[in-house]
Design goal:
Structural class: alpha/beta
Number of strands: 8
Radius of gyration: 22 Å
Shape: flat
Distance between the termini: 48 Å
Oligomer: single chain
């Protein structure tokens, strides 16, 4: 496993990591790849190394894993793929049950945190399950990016809450969990990845810079979102005009990608099958279905 991580790290450029990443190498996952760092000739932060692996299952197979997924169809797919997954919400009762059965977790990943309508319960569950010296990683869609880049198509029923970074700092601190660092991900059009431990620790320069950016942007001020609303009205109206203009000129309009965000965009612009002939998508789960609302 160490040799495999080392080889993949070389392919990914073998980025050098600092003291924070060295600390993250503690725990079961970290010990599995400490030798990989030696082989590459530099420390390798385990979680970033695993992300770069083309076949992560080869590394993760020996590790004890447990997935929690409330969507029954997705949990079924995960189990079929070799990741033991229970069909439950990630709430304190679930965390307590897992901890009794399997012990505390060295690493807890919480992805798509903006999909969670019960944020307080989810953070409480994370705190319950995480080992005292463990690390938690939370990924969520950045609210400042939604505001800056006019990502209004991301605002729909599956995204009940949009957190600022300062929100997350306070939410986690309520459970004695503290963000050591923040990195970025292109997921969802721009996400934050938070690296979290128990107990107060020093903040990275990246974390401080991101907090300053939010304050300068003013995404906590009502005026910023009132202006956002006006920009949404202007943009969606223009989008509708463009499509209707193409239809009027005799063009056949097709859509590529039956995503939730695409569906939201079409609904805001009041575009239906009267204006768009067909939608293409490469997911077999979507073939033969209709777009909600837009039909």
């Amino acid at each position: 496993d160490a040799q495999l991580v080392a080889a993949r790290a070389r392919e990914g450029g073998g980025e050098r990591v600092g003291p924070r990443e060295d600390r993250l190498l503690s725990g079961a996952l970290g010990r599995c790849v400490e030798h990989a760092g030696e082989e590459v000739g530099q420390p390798v932060e385990v979680l970033r190394a695993v992300v770069r692996v083309r076949r992560p299952r080869e590394i993760l197979e020996p590790l004890r894993r447990q997935g929690v997924e409330p969507a029954r169809n997705i949990a079924t797919i995960a189990n079929a793929g070799g990741v033991p997954t229970i069909d439950e919400y990630f709430v304190p009762a679930t965390a307590e049950s897992l901890k009794r059965a399997r012990g505390a977790a060295d690493v807890v990943f919480v992805r798509n945190f903006h999909h969670v309508p019960f944020a307080l319960e989810a953070v409480s569950a994370l705190s319950c399950l995480l080992a005292d010296d463990g690390i938690a990683v939370i990924e969520y869609h950045r609210r400042d990016v939604v505001l800056e880049q006019l990502q209004y198509d991301s605002i729909y029923h599956e995204h009940p809450l949009f957190f600022s970074l300062s929100d997350m700092v306070q939410l986690l601190a309520n459970h004695n969990l503290f963000i050591e660092d923040v990195t970025s991900s292109p997921i969802s059009g721009g996400s934050h990845i938070l690296w979290i431990r128990r107990g107060q620790s020093s903040r990275s320069s990246s974390l401080e810079n991101e907090l300053h950016h939010e304050r300068d942007l003013g995404d906590h001020l009502p005026d910023a979102w009132n202006q956002f609303a006006e920009r949404v009205r202007e943009h969606s109206a223009h989008f509708r005009e463009v499509v209707l203009g193409e239809v009027k000129n005799g063009s056949r309009v097709c859509a590529v990608g039956a995503s939730s965000r695409g569906t939201t965009l079409l609904n805001i612009a009041a575009l239906t099958s009267e204006h768009i002939d067909v939608v293409a998508d490469n997911s077999p789960l979507k073939i033969g279905k209709m777009l909600a609302g837009a039909r």
